[in-house]
Amino acid sequence: MPWTGKRACRREHFIPSPDPDPKVVRLTFTFGFMTVVVSQLIYTLFLSVFWTMWMSRAPREQA
Q1: What are the DSSP calls for 8-62, one per residue?
Q2: Exposure winner among 8, 29, 35, 57, fewest CB in 10 A?
């Protein structure tokens, strides 16, 4: 069937894929979730250090 410019969503165009291994699905979800948690931890630590340094700076002199 030639391309007509419309979305072709016919079932025969797709190659059926086997179901993924449940262990791989669990590992992928776990590693993805842990990546988000570690990223938030690093960002929070950086923000905390920066905020502490900013708040403990010496006051500026009035001009």
Answers
A1: ---GGGSPP-PPPPHHHHHHHHHHHHHHHHHHHHHHHHHHHHHHHHHHTSPPPPP
A2: 57
Q: Is residue 32 a contact partner of residue 39, using CB atoms and an 8 Å limit?
A: no
Indicate whether 15 pLDDT > 80.
no
Q: Which residues of 20-54 are buried (b: 16+ CB within 10 A; e: fewer)?
A: eeeeeeeeeeeeeeeeeeeeeeeeeeeeeeeeeee
Tokens linked to 1: 């069937």
pTM of the full structure: 0.59
Residue with tokens 């708040």: 55
Over residues 22-47, the pLDDT tens digits come to: 999 999 999 999 999 999 999 999 99
